[in-house]
Write a structure and sequence with these properties.
Helix content: over 70%
Distance between the termini: 78 Å
Shape: elongated
Order of helices and strands: HHEEHHHHHHHHHHHHHHHHHHH
Radius of gyration: 31 Å
Largest sheet: 2 strands, antiparallel
């Protein structure tokens, strides 16, 4: 039966190696056709284990389908399609093939029924994403990619050690629910959390993603963190400390996004805080919370890609990414402004957008679980999200002070990608039932009740009012925000350089001391060879006879002992 079903992830990965040989319309058709073909293959797959293999005595399942895996694979393939359309005009010949390897391996993780396949696809995903970053073609992108790959190699090593320990402990490779009850499972969990952007290693995300090309960050925003959400959903649902990890990520992202001046770093930090909502939902662990985390991952991929598309369109048109250098672009970029504003409303969970029908499920789960402090924190965070992404990003980039720039809207392929994702944001907000039908558990939730809508509108109104009251303190200024990455980019690097200088100094001193000792010994030996020295000094005949006799006696003694 195995050969009757084709792996949707392989469609993208194999197709990626075909793209460099194509040009013109054939290349464009392949970029749009490969994700559609993969989607067709995915939805032909029945649920269950479809591929199986034996490896070193373990049963592997490289292709296994259930509702959760189909949901994530579907949104990953839609993202590959929308990102490919947006990037059709990208001059780099590397970026889209690398992005398809990246997306295909992310699909491979979601359809993996065993931990070995998860690890292989996980590492392939790191290779693809690093190449997308390299395709940015700048020195900043290259430097960021080195730091990015170092962090992900660390995560990969931890995950490898955890998977190996799990195999030795249990003798079973099946990827199923685990608990942090052993060293191996803790290592697996930490490996997953590093890719989710959890503390203390969250800074790799805002460090790397903004350095990609105008289209590269769109791909980067979708797969790594959401694949981590998927594996946490499958592997560690209901792990309570994830609630607190998630809440920390939410407020960490909000605070840093408010401090930022770079529009793409604002959006990168907002990825961290939105993933925090999902991680908190996974920690709550009820069916409502897990459905909410999965639904929010789906809707977040769409509106975050839309926001980064609008930022990418601005970057491609102006070459600028700092809010202090932008403003007033609605005059000449109306389509980009409208689409970016729809993305901003969706991330703020404005009613009739996708964010509202997904994020509210997580907050409802906190209420149902009588987690008062968690609910209060999530509600306060919703206001914070509106502050930094719902208002700050579109206000400073498209409105407020006129920068005098008058770039035109981007080419048609970029516009249509933004329009399509805007449509999905609104369609899901107005008609959420198709998304709810894809969720792993039956949905008994109505988003549009008077209480839900009124509460959310009150939060948005309050945070909007707070933004304009605090506007003098939120002015666009040239700032450098220090994050945890400062520790390994500056502090640890400085310590390593100081340690290197110390070791070089010690080595030089030791070599100098050895040279001086050797020179002194050589001089002393040379002096003994001169007239009057120990070796050339004249001695009485009797003394020489005595030394000769002693030498012979010593020889005889050694001979007998031997």
């Amino acid at each position: 039966m195995a050969d009757l079903f084709f792996h949707p992830g392989l469609v993208l990965v194999l197709g990626a190696f075909l793209l460099p040989f194509l040009k013109g319309n054939a290349r464009s058709a392949a970029i749009l056709g490969l994700p559609l073909l993969a989607l067709y293959c995915l939805w032909r797959l029945p649920e269950g284990t479809l591929w199986s293999a034996h490896w070193l005595g373990y049963e592997l399942a490289p292709l296994a389908v259930d509702k959760l895996s189909r949901l994530f694979a579907t949104i990953f393939l839609l993202m590959a399609l929308g990102g490919g359309l947006f990037a059709l005009g990208q001059k780099s010949r590397l970026e889209i093939p690398a992005a398809f390897v990246y997306a295909g391996s992310a699909v491979g993780v979601t359809l993996a029924g065993d931990l070995v396949t998860v690890f292989v696809c996980w590492e392939l995903m790191a290779v693809g994403s690093t190449l997308v970053l390299w395709a940015g073609g700048t020195s900043g992108a290259f430097a960021a990619s080195r730091r990015y790959v170092a962090i992900h190699l660390l995560g990969g090593v931890l995950l490898f050690a955890g998977v190996a320990g799990h195999l030795l402990d249990t003798g079973d490779a099946t990827f199923t629910r685990m608990a942090p009850d052993s060293v191996a499972h803790w290592l697996i969990l930490i490996g997953f959390l590093i890719n989710a952007g959890a503390p203390p290693l969250s800074a790799w995300l805002p460090d790397a993603y903004p350095e990609a090309s105008w289209s590269g960050s769109v791909f980067l925003s979708a797969f790594t963190t959401k694949t981590a959400v998927y594996v946490l959903l499958r592997g560690f649902p209901g792990t309570e400390f994830l609630i607190w990890i998630g809440l920390f990520m939410i407020f960490y992202g909000i605070v840093y996004a408010l401090l930022e001046n770079d529009m793409r770093r604002i959006l990168a930090y907002s990825i961290v805080n939105q993933v925090g909502f999902m991680v908190a939902g996974i920690g709550i662990g009820t069916e409502m919370a897990l459905n909410g985390a999965a639904a929010h991952a789906f809707s977040h991929i769409v509106y975050k890609a839309l926001l980064l598309m609008s930022a990418g369109a601005v970057l491609a048109a102006t070459g600028r990414r700092k809010c202090s250098e932008l403003g007033g672009l609605f005059h000449s970029m109306p389509v980009t402004t409208i689409c970016g504003s729809i993305g901003a409303l969706a991330i703020s969970s404005f009613p009739l957008t996708s964010g509202f029908i997904s994020k509210s499920m997580v907050t409802q789960a906190a209420i149902d679980g009588q987690l008062l402090w968690v609910w209060l924190a999530l509600a306060a965070a919703s206001a914070g999200v509106f502050l930094h992404a719902g208002i700050k990003f579109p206000w400073f980039v498209f409105f407020q002070k006129d920068s005098g720039l008058r770039p035109a809207d981007p080419p048609a392929s970029m516009r249509w990608a933004m329009i399509a994702f805007s449509f999905i944001c609104i369609a899901l907000g107005v008609w959420p039932e198709p998304l709810y039908a894809l969720l792993p558990y039956a949905v008994d939730y109505v988003p549009y009740t008077g209480a839900h809508v009124l509460t959310q509108l009150q939060l948005l109104l309050f945070s909007g009012l707070a933004f304009f009251v605090m506007l003098p303190w939120l002015k666009r200024t040239l700032t450098i925000t220090l994050d945890v990455d400062w520790v390994y980019r500056v502090a640890l690097a400085g310590l390593c350089r100081a340690g290197g200088r110390l070791l070089r100094g010690l080595g030089d001193g030791l070599r100098q001391a050895l040279r001086e000792v050797g020179s002194a010994v050589g001089s002393d030996i040379e002096r003994q060879r001169r007239p009057g020295g120990l070796l050339l000094r004249s001695r009485p005949t009797g003394a020489m006879a005595l030394w000769t006799m002693l030498m012979l006696l010593a020889y005889l003694l050694f001979y007998y002992l031997h």
